[in-house]
């Protein structure tokens, strides 16, 4: 992209009054003047964006404009078109507005602020909760009442229109930015642009002149250091780490992929949870409920899941270590298609549906009293505090229809040991169901036969997961790669002396040291004649 | 029994060595010890000793408890101070490019370790068992990446805060002349790119400091440039770790609970931290906004990391309740 300057339109901006007196660094024949100026696009008559470029005027042909301009604003996207109609220019205008970096930064900050607000305001509570917490007569911060919350959808922030709208806007910005700025950047970076003049080379971030050196030696040394070297006549161009230039594009594409996958998940998945006592079964289709409007049930929803066995492992201290469910899947004809024991962190996958072991519960206690029974007593949850649970049941003794019937109470924290209390409520003993040892309570012989647990399963089918996983992998990889530094080196053989210049985009501090180290290796030619 | 004694010894060794290193650094600031005794290098060796001490401590806990030592808040704090000592060692190996990370990482390591062992966290130093949800290979990857990410990002944002402090300070630059660092910087001054950077400096800074002598301005600019550069590099590294950590956490959640993102407070705040540092990196690419603005964003990031790491744990709710103060 070569820019020709029309002196009439050129005017000096007041922003940076000092013009760089770079002439004292250039001991060459030509005079150099560096200016910061504001370009006006002659076609529209109005400026299409302030582009601050440093342009060096010298006797030789104008060097290609540096890439820095394309990182800003990106308003050049539409500069090339002719005088076409307004409709043709509208998408370009929209693109240029969307790919504006400050806009993207504002969007990101707004999303961050909304997310933070979502953690402060309780999500998903009943309306009465908000009436109480953010009342109208005593508003938080002086103005924030429940009307604000319901109007903006803050009680379900992460699916509220304002939040999703911001995410969609960010996605649009990402796409626009990738199209207008990043992809042209790739073209510029790939161009093997040989620099034809000494001044152009000396203007780089790092430049040096070697008085008696050969360009071939430099080429060989650079190749040894991992650069890709191209030579054409007396000039040389080498680069290293090109992946570091491409990787940011990959990052943005990966983020778009994740957003697409997330949208798929939100609109097309099914989920459901169920607590099944050991020995019973259920049909997947009965449990799974659609989440979005694109959810379509599949054939595997007709599968019947049978819980064969539910067991728990314990640590020596008595805490729960792991719980397992032995499941068999049977199809419509009753034939078993899959059998697997699942546990937490080890789910079962069949036909697109995944079954996770997430919870456990105590279903019933089987006891015999004086040889009668066995009675299946349902266990009721008394206190559930995350992983710590307490269940209890009651075996009535005597006249069960009397108003204050007494009985034997049994409490259990897990399936391992049951604590038994007598008719007065006093502690009687602890029994393990496996031992089948009887316990004497008020003349009755109670044997605890079995503790029947129920498994808490969560079922899910999610079409967006492969897309999201691909996005995750791409994001991790490209973020790592974009840490690499893209270095470019130009060199020109000027008689016996060699002019070398280079720049890099990330590792700016180490670059001069690395360059000096390389240049020190270039041998000095002490021949008297030059070929 | 042996293991707990070993653990105690290693904890005490690492803590005391870091304190000694810190004392030496402070003394170096006031009095130029390098010309008296060659102390400067020994503080680097001190950090290496601390690193081995903490590594030994973590290994001991691993063997003793049977699970990777990252299951509650105490262990993650020890891991964080370990991360700081690793980052400090980067400068130890990169001898030719002496940077100023030393001043940040050593005090951070000691504060973290001090807090962890101070006894504010009741019974946590004892190894606890893992609940079923935490018994997974993903634990190692997710939590270690997050802690390493937090460590690097904390270093980077502290460097940015230092940059802001130095930029906006108008007095008290007398001790600069005696500082060994500036003598070293002098070697770099007479190079092409040094002057190039000065010319590119924002005119705002020039006007602010015009009443100072030129040489003092010069050292200050050079130091600010160095701080800016190192802050950028280490925040980029921390950002990579944070990305990998968040994503591996999401994959782990999907394997365990069937949903890769639950808008859990801790997840949300980690994402907010990620967003802030993404904003920081984007500001850095654009030459118009550079300099002060990126440093301000990184300083905000510092606060956010602490909210994410500690603040959410104070609530003790959600999927990440394992790390809370109240859990034992």
UniProtKB/TrEMBL annotation, chain A:
This protein's record includes keyword Metal-binding: no
Ranges for domain ResB-like: 103-366, 406-515
CC per GO annotation: membrane
Topology in the lipid bilayer: Multi-pass membrane protein
InterPro entries listed in its UniProt record: Cyt_c_bgen_Ccs1/CcsB/ResB, ResB-like_domain
Domain of life of the native organism: Eukaryota
GO aspect biological process, one term: cytochrome complex assembly
Entry keyword annotation includes Transmembrane: yes
Transmembrane segments: 162-186, 242-264
Annotated Polar residues bias: 30-59
Start and end residues of each stretch annotated as Disordered: 16-78
Pfam families linked: ResB
Compartments, record wording: Membrane
Keyword field: Cytochrome c-type biogenesis, Membrane, Transmembrane, Transmembrane helix
Protein name: ResB-like domain-containing protein
Species name: Brassica carinata
Lineage of producing organism: Eukaryota, Viridiplantae, Streptophyta, Embryophyta, Tracheophyta
From TrEMBL, chain B:
Annotated GO CC locations: chloroplast thylakoid membrane; plasma membrane
Compartment annotation: Membrane; Plastid, Chloroplast thylakoid membrane
Regions crossing the membrane: 12-33, 45-64, 76-94, 141-168, 230-253, 268-283, 295-319
Record bears the keyword Cell inner membrane: no
Keywords: Chloroplast, Cytochrome c-type biogenesis, Membrane, Mitochondrion, Plastid, Thylakoid, Transmembrane, Transmembrane helix
Matching Pfam families: Cytochrom_C_asm (PF01578)
Membrane topology term: Multi-pass membrane protein
GO biological process: cytochrome complex assembly
Keyword Transmembrane helix annotated: yes
GO MF assignments: heme binding
Major location (coarse): membrane
Cytochrome c assembly protein domain span: 70-320
HAMAP family: CytC_CcsA (MF_01391)
Known role: Required during biogenesis of c-type cytochromes (cytochrome c6 and cytochrome f) at the step of heme attachment.
Similarity comment text for this entry: Belongs to the CcmF/CycK/Ccl1/NrfE/CcsA family.
Assembly information from the UniProt record: May interact with Ccs1.
Protein name (record): Cytochrome c biogenesis protein CcsA
Organism of provenance: Brassica carinata
Lineage, top ranks: Eukaryota, Viridiplantae, Streptophyta, Embryophyta, Tracheophyta
Gene name as annotated: ccsA
């Amino acid at each position: 992209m070569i820019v020709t300057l029309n002196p009439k339109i050129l005017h000096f901006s007041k922003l940076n009054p000092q013009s760089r007196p770079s002439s004292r660094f250039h001991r060459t024949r030509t005079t150099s003047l560096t200016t910061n100026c504001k370009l006006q696009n002659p076609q529209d008559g109005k400026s299409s964006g302030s582009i601050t470029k440093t342009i060096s005027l010298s006797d030789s042909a104008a060097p290609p404009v540096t890439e820095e301009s394309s990182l800003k604003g990106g308003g050049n996207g539409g500069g090339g078109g002719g005088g076409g109609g307004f409709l043709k220019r509208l998408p370009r205008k929209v693109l240029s507005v969307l790919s504006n970096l400050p806009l993207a930064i504002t969007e990101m900050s707004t999303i961050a602020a909304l997310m933070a607000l979502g953690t402060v305001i309780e999500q998903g509570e009943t309306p009465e909760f908000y009436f109480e917490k953010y009342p109208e007569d005593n508003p938080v911060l002086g103005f924030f009442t429940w009307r604000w919350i319901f109007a903006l959808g803050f009680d379900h922030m992460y699916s509220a229109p304002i939040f999703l709208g911001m995410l969609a806007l960010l996605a649009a910005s990402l796409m626009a930015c990738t199209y207008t700025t990043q992809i042209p950047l790739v073209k510029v970076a790939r161009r093997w642009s040989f620099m034809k003049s000494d001044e152009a080379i000396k203007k780089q971030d790092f430049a040096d002149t070697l008085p008696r050196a050969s360009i071939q030696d430099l080429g060989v040394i650079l190749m040894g250091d991992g650069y890709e070297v191209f030579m054409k006549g007396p000039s040389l161009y080498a680069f290293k780490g090109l992946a570091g230039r491409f990787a940011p594009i990959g990052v943005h594409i990966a983020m778009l992929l994740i957003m697409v996958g997330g949208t798929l998940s939100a609109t097309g998945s099914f989920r459901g949870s169920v607590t099944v006592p050991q020995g019973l079964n259920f049909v997947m289709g009965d449990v799974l409920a659609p989440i979005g409007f694109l959810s379509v049930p599949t054939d595997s929803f007709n599968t019947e899941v049978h819980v064969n066995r539910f067991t728990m492992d314990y640590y020596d201290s008595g805490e729960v270590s792991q719980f397992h469910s032995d499941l068999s899947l049977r199809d419509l004809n009753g034939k078993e298609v899959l059998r697997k024991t699942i546990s937490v962190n080890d789910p079962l996958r069949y036909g697109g549906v995944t079954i996770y072991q997430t919870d456990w519960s105590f279903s019933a206690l089987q006891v015999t009293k004086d040889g009668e029974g066995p009675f299946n007593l349902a266990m009721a949850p008394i206190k559930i505090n995350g992983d710590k649970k307490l269940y209890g049941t009651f075996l009535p003794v005597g006249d069960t229809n009397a108003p204050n019937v007494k009985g034997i109470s049994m409490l259990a924290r897990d399936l391992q040991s049951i604590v038994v209390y007598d008719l007065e409520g006093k502690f009687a003993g602890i029994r393990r169901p496996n031992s089948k040892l009887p316990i004497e309570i008020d003349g009755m012989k109670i044997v605890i036969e079995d503790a029947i647990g129920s498994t808490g399963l969560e079922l899910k089918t999610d079409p967006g997961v492969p897309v999201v996983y691909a996005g995750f992998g791409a994001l991790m990889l490209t973020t790592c790669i974009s840490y690499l530094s893209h270095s470019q080196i130009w060199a020109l053989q000027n008689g016996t002396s060699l002019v070398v210049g280079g720049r890099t985009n990330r590792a700016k501090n180490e670059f001069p040291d690395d360059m000096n180290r390389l240049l020190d290796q270039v041998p000095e030619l002490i021949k008297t004649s030059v070929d | 029994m042996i293991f707990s004694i070993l653990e105690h010894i290693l904890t005490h060794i690492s803590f005391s060595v870091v304190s000694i290193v810190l004392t030496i650094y402070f003394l170096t600031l006031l009095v130029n010890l390098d010309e008296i005794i060659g102390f400067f290098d020994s503080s680097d060796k001190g950090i290496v000793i601390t690193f081995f001490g903490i590594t030994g401590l973590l290994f001991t806990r691993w063997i003793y408890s049977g699970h990777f030592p990252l299951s509650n808040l105490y262990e993650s704090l020890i891991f964080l101070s370990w991360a700081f000592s690793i980052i400090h060692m980067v400068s130890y190996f990169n001898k030719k490019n002496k940077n100023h990370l030393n001043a940040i990482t050593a005090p951070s390591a000691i504060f973290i370790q001090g807090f962890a062992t101070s006894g504010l966290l009741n019974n946590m130093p004892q190894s606890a068992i893992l609940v079923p949800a935490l018994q997974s290979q993903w634990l190692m990857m997710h939590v270690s990446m997050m802690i390493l990410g937090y460590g690097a990002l904390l270093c980077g944002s502290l460097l940015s805060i230092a940059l802001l402090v130095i930029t906006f300070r108008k007095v008290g630059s007398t001790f600069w002349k005696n500082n060994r660092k500036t003598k070293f910087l002098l070697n770099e001054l007479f190079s092409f790119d040094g002057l190039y950077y000065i010319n590119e400096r924002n005119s705002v800074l020039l006007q602010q400091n015009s009443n100072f002598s030129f040489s003092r301005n010069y050292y200050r600019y050079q130091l600010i440039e160095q701080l800016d550069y190192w802050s950028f590099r280490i925040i980029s590294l921390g950002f990579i770790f944070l990305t990998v950590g968040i994503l591996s956490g999401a994959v782990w959640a999907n394997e365990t609970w069937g949903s890769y993102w639950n808008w859990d407070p801790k997840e949300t705040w980690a994402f907010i931290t990620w967003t802030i540092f993404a904003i920081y990196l984007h500001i850095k690419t654009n030459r118009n906004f550079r300099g002060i603005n990126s440093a301000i964003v990184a300083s905000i990031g510092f606060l956010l990391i602490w909210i994410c790491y500690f603040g959410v744990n104070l609530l003790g709710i959600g999927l990440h309740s394992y790390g809370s103060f109240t859990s034992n």
